[in-house]
Amino acid sequence: MADYGYTRRTPNQVDKLEAAGCVKVFADYAATSPDMRLNLMSCLVEMEAGDRLVICEFTEVSRHVGTAREVLEWLDVHGQEFGVLDEPKWTLAEVLAWVRSFP
Q1: Number of domains in the chain
Q2: How confident is the model at residue 11 (pLDDT cuts 50, 70, 90)?
Q3: Strands (DSSP E) found in the chain
Q4: Where along the sequence do coiled-coil regions lie (predicted)?
Q5: What is the largest CA-CA distance in the chain?
Q6: pLDDT at 91 > cutoff 90
Q7: Mind listing the pLDDT tens digit for each residue in 27-68?
Q8: Alpha carbon distance 5, 22 (integer Å)
Q9: What is the per-residue pLDDT for 14?
Q10: What are the residues facing 6 on neighbouring strands?
Q11: Distance from CA of residue 89 to its chain's centroid?
């Protein structure tokens, strides 16, 4: 089981994810459209069951609920986990239930 980092922000967040122990950090530019986050998709495909996607803030996944739901459901289906450095108490099940509560 390994932690994989993802950010769409600044190099500071890459450093923060590396310091948190992520074996690899993927980054997209903040202005990238949700449909064009190629490095997020690469990260998800590279991860194996039991691995964890780690982000600094929840909005790293997406500011759009539908896109966030798709990413979280991918993790769930593939037996992967999810962690937010600024909110370490959230589990994948809790965040997925919350995101699914939106229409």
Answers
A1: 1
A2: confident
A3: 3-7, 24-27, 52-55, 81-84
A4: none
A5: 36
A6: no
A7: 987 665 656 678 999 999 999 999 999 998 877 777 777 788
A8: 6
A9: 92
A10: 26
A11: 15
Residue holding tokens 């449909």? 35
Domain CATH number, residue 45 = 3.40.50.1390
Which residues lie below 8 Å from residue 49, measured CB to CB, with a gap of 6+?
78, 79, 80
Q: Is the pLDDT of residue 74 over 90?
A: yes
Question: Could you tell me the two tokens for 5?
Answer: 């980092």
How far is 16 from 88, CA to CA, in rounded Å? 14
Sheet with strand 52-55: strands edge to edge = 24-27, 3-7, 52-55, 81-84
For tokens 């590396």, the residue is 18
In order of 75, 86, 102, the CA distances from 97 in angstroms are 13, 19, 9
DSSP string, 43-70: HHHH--TT-EEEESSGGGT-SSHHHHHH
Q: Which domain holds residue 82?
A: 3-100
As given in the structure block, the two tokens for residue 6 are 């993802």
